[in-house]
Structures are given as structure tokens and as C-alpha cells.
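At this stage, I needed to go through a protein sequence along with its fold in C-alpha cell form, as given directly below:
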Amino acid sequence: MSMTHPFDPDCLYELTDEGTIRITRDGKTGFFTGEGIYLSGEIRSADPQLCNWITNVPNPDTQLTASRIAGRDDAGKSIASHLE
């Protein structure tokens, strides 16, 4: 998963195969934990909330239940059936 920072569209946050975050901007790179803690590289600061957002990708094989976000699947219909 990857995304650009909403306040700095030149800054790309990417999830690596190792589970860390690679940030690239203007040819420079930095590596961070999912909490935004610096690991290595030229870029030494990161948005911890965006790092957390990117690393929070559930594995469908290990998820115990389906999503319950209303409107995204059938589970939302049973929760809000009185609104139909």
C-alpha cells in the first residue's frame, strides 16, 4: 500500500515487504516503523498517523470477522435495517 501525504503531495509513503514505511521525497528516502519512529535514511521525520494508517492493513486470512462498516457490506444492512 502507498499514498501521498495529504498536506505534502510530493511525499510518498509506502509499505515495504518488511512491514516498515519507506518515505520518498525529492530523490531522498527514509525508513520508519508503523508508529513513525525513524529507522534510517536521509528523511528523518514522518507523520506518525499516516505511518499507522498505512501499516494497518488486516490480513483477510487471519481476520476473525467481516467488516462492519455500514454500506460497505451486508453486515451494515442488518445493523441499520430499521432505516430502510
Summary: Residues 2-83 form one domain. The chain has one domain: 2-83. The chain is about 15% helix and 30% strand. The mean pLDDT is 80.
